[in-house]
Design a protein that fits this description.
- GO terms for molecular function: oxidoreductase activity.
- Pfam families: ADH_N, ADH_zinc_N.
- This is Quinone oxidoreductase.
- The protein is built from 10 helices and 16 strands.
- The chain is α/β, with parallel strands linked by helices and 324 residues long.
- Strands 3, 5, 6, 7, 8, 15 and 16 form a 7-stranded mixed sheet that branches.
- Helix 8 packs across helix 9.
- The longest helix has 21 residues.
- It is globular.
- The structure holds NADP nicotinamide-adenine-dinucleotide phosphate.
- NADP nicotinamide-adenine-dinucleotide phosphate (NAP) binds next to helix 1, helix 2, helix 3 and helix 10.
Length: 324
C-alpha cells in the first residue's frame, strides 16, 4: 500500500510517498481501507516534531480518516468487514490502509459522504465542546471566533449560528471573512487590518459573551479586553505559534472567565460529556450540517495540502483521497 512517510522531521516537503506491506489486524485491532483522510493542523506539528508528544521516525503521517473495514482481529465485536467507519489515530491516516484499535472507530453518521465524514470529527467535536461545554454559549450570545475561516473556525461559526449565537468572525482577510458570512456569521473583522478590540466593542456594545481562540498570539489579549463582564474566553490552540501571556489585572477588572479546552483530555476526564456532544452533533448533521471542505487532494499531494494549511491559505477543511 502507498503511505506518506515522515523519515526525518521537517516541513511538509520532507514527507515521502512509500510502498509498504499491507497491515494486518492483531487482537482487538481493525484494518480499514482509507477512503478519505482529513488534514489537521497538528499533523504538520507532529511531522516537524513540534507537537506536545514526539513520535519516533519513521512513521506515516495523518490522524483522521473515514473508510471501509477490511479485516478484524480476534476479540473485535463492534465492527465487521464492509462496515463504513470514521476514526482517529495519532499517526497513520495518510495511507491506503490503516490498522487501529477497535475503540478508535465510530460509525459514519447517516447522510455523510466519506470526505465529509473524515472532515467533521476533530473540528466539529472541538468546536461543539469549546462553544457549549466550556464556553457555555447561550442563544443570543455574541460569539467571537478567531481564525474563523480555518477548520476549527468554520466549524465554530457553523455550530454557533445553528445554536442561535450571533457570530462575529475574525480572520486575516476580507475574502476569508466573506466565507464565514456565508456560513452564518452576522459580522466580520479582518484582524490584520482592523483593530480587533475596538471592532468587537463597537459591534456588540457591551462586549463579547464568548470568545473561541484557536490562534493565540496578540489577538488573545485584544479579544479578552473586548469581552463583556463575566465573558468566557476559551483557549483552543496556538496556530499563530505564539502562546499568549495575559495580564491578570484585565481578568480581574472584567470578571472574565478564561478556560482551556483540549478534546483529548475532555475525552479522558468526561467521556459522558463527549458522548452527549457526539449525539448533539449527530442531530445537527441530520438537520443538514456539513463541514466546509475547500479542497480534495490525491494522497501524493499531502505535502502541498499541509503547506496550504500552514500558509493560512486553506479555507475550512482539506481532505486527501487515497482512492484516486
Ligand atoms: N484544543 C483542541 O482540542 C484542538 C482540536 C483541534 C485543533 N486544535 C488547534 O486549533 C488550532 C487551529 O486548528 P485548525 O484545524 O482550525 O487549523 P487551520 O484550519 O489551519 O486554521 C487555523 C487558522 O489560524 C489562523 N492563523 C493565524 N495565524 C496563523 C499562523 N501563523 N499560521 C497558521 N494559521 C494562522 C489562520 O486564519 P487567518 O489567516 O484567517 O488568521 C487559520 O485559518 C491549531 O493550533 C490546532 O492545533 C485544538
Amino acid at each position: 500500500m502507498r503511505a506518506i512517510r515522515c523519515e526525518a522531521y521537517g516541513g511538509p516537503e520532507s514527507l515521502t510517498v512509500r510502498d509498504l506491506p499491507d497491515p494486518t489486524a492483531g487482537p482487538g485491532q481493525v484494518v480499514v481501507r482509507v477512503e478519505a483522510a482529513a488534514v489537521n493542523y497538528p499533523d504538520g506539528l507532529v511531522v516537524a516534531n513540534r507537537y506536545q508528544v514526539s513520535v519516533p521516525t519513521p512513521f506515516t503521517a495523518g490522524s483522521e480518516f473515514a473508510g471501509t473495514v477490511l479485516s478484524v482481529g480476534t476479540g473485535v465485536h463492534t465492527v465487521t468487514p464492509g462496515d463504513t467507519v470514521t476514526g482517529a489515530s495519532f499517526t497513520g491516516a495518510f495511507a491506503e490502509q490503516i490498522v487501529v484499535p477497535e475503540t478508535a472507530l465510530a460509525p459514519i453518521p447517516d447522510g455523510l459522504s466519506m470526505i465529509d465524514a473524515a472532515a467533521f470529527g476533530v473540528t466539529y467535536r472541538t468546536a461543539y465542546h469549546a462553544l457549549v461545554t466550556i464556553g457555555e454559549m447561550r442563544t443570543g450570545d455574541w460569539v467571537v471566533v478567531l481564525g474563523a475561516a480555518g477548520g476549527v473556525g468554520t466549524a465554530c461559526v457553523d455550530i454557533a449560528t445553528r445554536l442561535g449565537g450571533r457570530v462575529i468572525a475574525a480572520a486575516s482577510s476580507e475574502e476569508r471573512v466573506e466565507l464565514c458570512r456565508s456560513l452564518g456569521a452576522v459580522e466580520g473583522i479582518a484582524y490584520e487590518k482592523e483593530n480587533l478590540k475596538e471592532r468587537i466593542k463597537s459591534i456588540t456594545g457591551s462586549g463579547a459573551d464568548v470568545v473561541i481562540d484557536p490562534v493565540g498570539g496578540a489577538y488573545a489579549e485584544q479579544a479578552i479586553r473586548a469581552t463583556t463582564w463575566g465573558g468566557r474566553y476559551v483557549c483552543v490552540g496556538f496556530a499563530n505559534g505564539e502562546i499568549p501571556r495575559i495580564p491578570m489585572n484585565i481578568v480581574l477588572l472584567k470578571g472574565a472567565i478564561l478556560r482551556g479546552f483540549e478534546i483529548r483530555t475532555l475525552a479522558d476526564h468526561r467521556p459522558d460529556v463527549v458522548a452527549d456532544g457526539t449525539a448533539a452533533i449527530e442531530r445537527l448533521i441530520s438537520e443538514g450540517m456539513r463541514p466546509h471542505v475547500s479542497g480534495v487532494f490525491a494522497l501524493e499531494d499531502a505535502p502541498r495540502a499541509l503547506a496550504l494549511m500552514q500558509n493560512r491559505a486553506a479555507h475550512g477543511k482539506i481532505v486527501l483521497d487515497p482512492t484516486v
